[in-house]
Amino acid sequence: MTPHTEIFNDLLKLAVDSGVSDVVIKTNKPGYVRLAGKLKPVDMDPITGEEAKAWVDEHVPRVFKPLWEENNQVDFAYATEGIGRFRVNAFYQRGTVSVVLRHIKSKVPEFDELGLNGEPLLNLAKSKDGILLICGATGSGKSSTMAAMLNWINRNLDRHIVTIEDPIEYTFVDDKSVFQQREIGTDVPNFDLAIKAVLRQNPDIILIGEMRDRETFETAISAAETGHLVFSTMHAATVAQSLTRLFEFFPPEQLAQARRQIAGSLRGFICQKLIPTIEGEGRVPATEVMAADQTVKNLILEGENEKIQGLLNGGTDSASHSFNRDIMRLIKEGKISKADGVRYSPNPQALEMNLKGIFFK
């Protein structure tokens, strides 16, 4: 083992043993770890620029080396026996190499383990076709929630599931379903080739790691319209913002067609954020879920997206709920404090009223 790999592995082992989610490495600084959302330095010697660059040069997959050399940034997966698997982003800043690694837990999570309200998520997971989007900021637990939904499908339904991931985060063991997990750079050279091939691979369910552009979304719509269920993620904070992001894929002259396609194919949004637990030793997800029923589809067709948030805020349908309703649940179950609930609420004034039993549409 090379000296720089030994330094990195020692740091990663410490991180995994401590339950850390992310490791941040900056040239001429000690390693930093993110524990329960807080960034802390590690008591170790600074990592030199030569050590950081040598580690990336050694472990970046061969197919990604040109990207690293030409673009000065690259994403890839790193696995080491006895420690675990990590999602890596390496990049230059101010002429020196930095690396951020996220620990990918090997065990596929269950709803209860994540602290999720499983009922509305199961209702969406049972969809026969259409598009399901799991949304939130980076590090909000989107991949874990999506994995928990696919894990339930794997144990209960006979489906052929093809995933396109960059990189693979959770590895599934076939149960009632059969998984084909394709990693960009390892199993297929690039995302575009994987997307173009996926409909020829006879899937029932397709997982697209991220809804990144119009071409990807149009492929998802095509798959949904031909009887497939498509899971994907997007960077958006709320249901309202998620809908706005979808329409941004289309030029103005195609918005009428986009409304028809989205209304026809969308099955629902799950937006989430992580809130510190009341004990202060971890975080628990709060979700906003919108099941695309006929009322929602009609509002999308009519271009009245702004009214959808009102439905979530005032509704009592178990298939959908606002962030405030889920934050209320977490407060009442004693999982988070009222102060943190209000702090993380997208509408704290409304939450204060909701906690008093007052709801407005």
TrEMBL record:
Highest rank taxon of the organism: Bacteria
SMART domains associated with the record: AAA
SUPFAM superfamilies: P-loop containing nucleoside triphosphate hydrolases
Domain Bacterial type II secretion system protein E, residue spans: 199-213
Gene3D superfamilies according to UniProt: 3.30.450.90, P-loop containing nucleotide triphosphate hydrolases (3.40.50.300)
MF terms in GO: ATP binding; ATP hydrolysis activity
Pfam families: T2SSE
Family under the similarity heading: Belongs to the GSP E family.
Protein name: PilT/PilU family type 4a pilus ATPase
